[in-house]
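Problem 3 from the worked examples.
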Amino acid sequence: MTESTAQSVPLLDKAVARNARALRKANGLSQADLAHAVGLSRASISNVEAGRQGLSVALLGRIADALGVPPAALLGEAGDMSSTPMADLMARLKSAERHARRCTVRASVAEADAARAQAELLSERAARLVAETELADLREGEAL
């Protein structure tokens, strides 16, 4: 492993930790819920979210599936320790969806429609971000 690669591993662990926690919370899941969904203990999920436990590609995929995102969303912007656009969009999308459900329960059709429209817009933005990320990954792969 080169020195550059060795330095990037902790950044990836931190990015996965941050993104996994943000996406789990955005999905309204507890650590125990996520652990059950991926077949790990709650302590293992806690270690992943703290950046103390590395992940295999297979486990990264299982966690991403349980969170309803592509694996790239967990990797996020490993060099940037601020929140990722994907995590922010997912959190806003979940919030808009929760707001839409509350509005429906209160029978406020106009508010519910507006919240659904906002959720749809955020969902489209998330899809575009995923597509842009995949395109960038493809271009990066071609450049190598």
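Problem 4, a separate protein:
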Amino acid sequence: MTRLLARHRGFSLIELLAVLLITALLASIAIPSYQKYIHRSYRTEAKDMLLRIASAQERYFSAQNRYGSLRELGITDARTSHHHYEVDVESDASQFKATARPLGQQTKDRCGSLSLDHTGRRSSSASQQTRDCW
């Protein structure tokens, strides 16, 4: 009887390979899903910054009767808090367009650059539907 117990201790190589295969399969499903979630959260940061810039532009326009540059709006750092997007503003007396360009790993995001103009129109540089990105 002790001989039988001694033979059945531990795991066989096939059992270990099966566990490794199942773990690899689960990781291949979970990691891309997690990366999509991360890209979406950083995209939310960029949208928030674009909306704050649009609000600052409207305040500036009501005081100066024209739209301003980032410097004139008092924005010194043109990157989102985690530095995954860089924001640029093109403006003149009657219109502006703020664009958030992805940086680093965020360039793999399916939405690409996000834009917001003086009319409130939202757009994306990617082929995706704008409503899916905004």
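Solution to problem 4. The two ends are 68 Å apart (CA to CA). The chain has four helices and four strands.
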